[in-house]
Amino acid sequence: MNRKDFLRSVALGGAVLTLPLGKLKSMPKLDEGCVLIPSETAGPFPLDLTENTFFFRRNITEDREGTAFKVRMRIQDVDTCEPMENVRVNIWHCDKDGNYSGYNSESGKTYLRGYQITDINGDVEFDTIFPGWYPGRICHIHFQVFVNSAYSAVSQFTFDLEARDNIYLENPTSYTKGKDPLTFNQDGIFADGYQYQLATIEKDNNGNYSSDITVNVKGATTRVGYSEMVNAKQFVISNNYPNPAKEFTIIPIEFKKSGRLIIDLYNLDGKKVNNIVNENVISGYKEIKIDLSKLNISNSNLAYQLRFENSDGVFTDCKIISLKR
Question: Please, what are the domains in the chain?
Fold first, then answer.
């Protein structure tokens, strides 16, 4: 099992991760209800992140200079206000000068694009730089939430004007164009409203910037996608337990057919850590115990991918093991 196979299975919507990244400060009170995130155009610069498997990564900066910026997103089911785990979140945005990778003079480049999978709190996290601005558009970040292989939500978020401009003015050597001249009403996307697309900006005591936003999408009411239905004819995998795990964890799987089972561990930057299972299995229920104490791995978020092969084809799924040592 190589990195390309693992990341392709994640990109196709078969990935399931279950690890808390931490509580987001933008989490709304449940008694306030939840509002569906407004749908927006993907813009002129989206790329299919499945075309290049290395887009499964937390740090999307590459060689781009600018103010370091951590983006945290929480994905919730609009009908229940509950966190949605196991969904893929893509983000992409321009660099400090307003350029997008993959287009015009930046053709062939891949900076400031990536995806992660939500944990049990519905959270994903990216390390990037604060985006610049370009004529006609206010500073913003694009995102796409893949609930399953049949449904995704596309939108954008922006920031408080004063907090946004403070970053530009405090870092003039990077943001040479100065502060963003546009307000929400002057932007073609946010002029009709931005209340549910406004991310926070915070600066800690060490001068590090971060952002939080909660995004509500259709969850339980969406239909099951094709890849999920295909997998269900071969196996049903439940969340590993205990999770977080200390010395061991158990992966419960019901196999509908016999075949070859391969399970590999990866970190959240898509690098293979270890192979933990490679064996033939028969149909029926099976609990796979993983002895974490023998893996010599420190506290970390780890994805495990199941790869099931038989005469019907190759079928994949993945989840997270949270290590608590």
Answer: 3-217 (2.60.130.10), 233-322 (2.60.40.2550)
